[in-house]
């Protein structure tokens, strides 16, 4: 059975990606129905909601999870949910939209999601639970750390390194060879010319980094 964690906007987009690939959800995991954006399943009708506690009581061998929690900057919830279910023995689906391009020499680890019209070019390495969102470009030899999010339309030139739990904002541009640390936020539309240390926010054109508050 395929279960979605979360039921909001990112989960709804993932549901479409899954359906195009021939997968139907068997239900979703959320504390309540507030903010629900998921459509009814073509196979099971109205999707059943279960709590984290109910999901954790299931047999991990009978369930495959997909992380439907998105991010507008804070990736802690998405990361903690992934780690909690992994510690309990569950596995996460890695998925790429049919309109995405993923090079055969790229490496995508467990739970990675590559959305519509995104590009992942040769020898890129995407660690666990990464999102490459709609229309984003991850160029050759990039390394993207676990739980990070490359937002809509962002462009990472060749040989860029991104740490864990870092949010690259919509339409941001990271120049070739730049290193972005862990727990960073790169603002929407920023143009990053220089390395950004762990725990910093970088905004503007060219981007200026400051310590996260």
Automatic annotation (TrEMBL):
Q: Which InterPro entries match?
A: AcTrfase_PglD-like, Hexapep, Trans_hexapeptide_repeat, Trimer_LpxA-like_sf
Question: CDD domains per the record?
Answer: LbH_AT_putative (cd03360)
Pfam families listed in its UniProt record:
Hexapep
Q: Which residues form a coiled coil?
A: none
Q: What is this protein called?
A: Unannotated protein
Upper classification of the organism? unclassified sequences, metagenomes, ecological metagenomes
């Amino acid at each position: 059975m395929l279960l979605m964690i979360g039921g909001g906007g990112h989960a709804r987009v993932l549901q479409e990606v899954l359906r195009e690939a021939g997968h139907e959800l068997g239900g979703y995991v959320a504390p309540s129905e507030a903010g629900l954006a998921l459509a009814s399943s073509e196979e099971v009708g109205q999707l059943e909601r279960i709590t984290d506690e109910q999901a954790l009581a299931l047999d991990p061998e009978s369930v495959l999870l997909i992380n439907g929690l998105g991010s507008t900057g804070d990736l802690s919830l998405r990361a903690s949910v992934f780690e909690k279910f992994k510690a309990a023995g569950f596995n996460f689906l890695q998925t790429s939209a049919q309109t995405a391009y993923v090079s055969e020499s790229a490496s995508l680890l467990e739970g990675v999601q590559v959305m519509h019209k995104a590009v992942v070019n040769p020898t890129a390495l995407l660690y666990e639970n990464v999102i490459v969102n709609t229309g984003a470009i991850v160029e050759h030899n990039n390394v993207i750390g676990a739980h990070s999010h490359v937002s809509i339309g962002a462009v990472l030139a060749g040989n860029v390194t991104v740490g864990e739990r870092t949010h690259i904002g919509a339409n941001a541009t990271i120049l070739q060879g730049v290193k972005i640390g862990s727990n960073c936020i790169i603002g929407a539309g920023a143009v990053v010319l220089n390395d950004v240390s762990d725990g910093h926010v970088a905004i503007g054109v060219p981007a200026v980094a400051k310590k996260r508050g």
